[in-house]
Design goal:
elongated, Ferritin, 8 helices, binds zinc ion, mainly alpha, binds fe (iii) ion
Length: about 250
């Protein structure tokens, strides 16, 4: 089947492209780690560097699997890519980030720039691994698909963690600007105030579940006044949000 041979070549091309991307990331991350000011950001990048080494290894395994049964399925029909190929997109993303990091920025803004650059990289990876995984699935290459899937999950996690770091930076800034005399969590603070965002540490799945549940929560709230026309709505609202935050402390890590 000519078509499937071509798709196979395309998959191989994508995997080689990702291999080059991961190699470039391994080279770029140490500089980003060094530049990062926030220690949680430093740690996240450090952890991702270790994970990226493993991801590169998985791509090696995937290429080996693809080469193994090449003889049975015929030679490459596209003749596209022999040997090394460089991911030019990753080269561009990294050089943009590095250019930005040379600017004279406050530590906080510099961290924001690092997070932005890192997230662009993760999004590129998510899109490429997602595509490659779909090709492997179509070609019934289960082992290759599993390898790609595992890395795809890690890239999603990294992206999610970067979002959390960006959000905590913004929350920190907001609470810093509201003045230190007004303390959070005082008796007078209202449940459901913006600061309660700080307490929710969401995983990718938890976030997806909560955004899916958001509309039903909204309709539940909307149903409130009708249910208790004359009773105090603030009382029931307060108790329900307290219940929510205690169940929200469940951690999956
Ligand atoms: Zn390419
Ligand atoms: Fe990666
Ligand atoms: Fe690429
Ligand atoms: Fe990554």
């Amino acid at each position: 089947m000519e078509n499937m041979n071509q798709l196979r070549d395309l998959l191989k091309h994508e995997i080689k492209d990702l291999y080059s991307a991961e190699e470039q990331i391994i080279e770029a991350l140490p500089k980003m780690i060094e530049k990062a000011n926030n220690k949680n950001l430093k740690k996240a990048l450090q952890d991702h560097l270790e994970i990226t080494e493993k991801q590169k290894g998985r791509l090696d395994d995937a290429l080996e699997l693809l080469d193994e049964d090449r003889e049975e399925k015929g030679k490459a029909t596209l003749g596209l890519f022999k040997g090394q190929q460089k991911c030019l997109a990753m080269e561009g993303l990294i050089s943009e980030g590095e250019k930005l990091m040379k600017e004279d920025m406050s530590p906080e803004v510099s961290d924001a720039a690092i997070i932005a650059a890192a997230q662009k990289i993760e999004h590129y990876e998510i899109s490429s691994y997602g595509t490659a995984k779909a090709y492997a699935q179509e070609l019934n290459l289960d082992e290759v698909e599993n390898l790609l899937e595992e890395t795809l999950g890690e890239e999603y996690e990294a992206d999610e963690l970067l979002t959390e770091l960006a959000e905590s930076r913004i929350n920190q800034r907001a609470s810093g600007e509201s003045g230190s005399s007004r303390q959070r969590g005082r008796a007078g603070s209202r449940p459901g105030s913006p600061t309660s965002k700080n307490t929710s540490r969401r995983t990718a799945t938890a976030k997806a579940a909560s955004s899916r549940g958001a509309s039903s929560a909204r309709s539940r709230n909307g149903g409130g006044p009708a249910a208790g026309r004359s009773s105090s709505p603030s009382k029931s609202k307060g108790s329900s949000s307290r219940g929510k935050s205690s169940s929200g402390s469940r951690s999956s890590r």
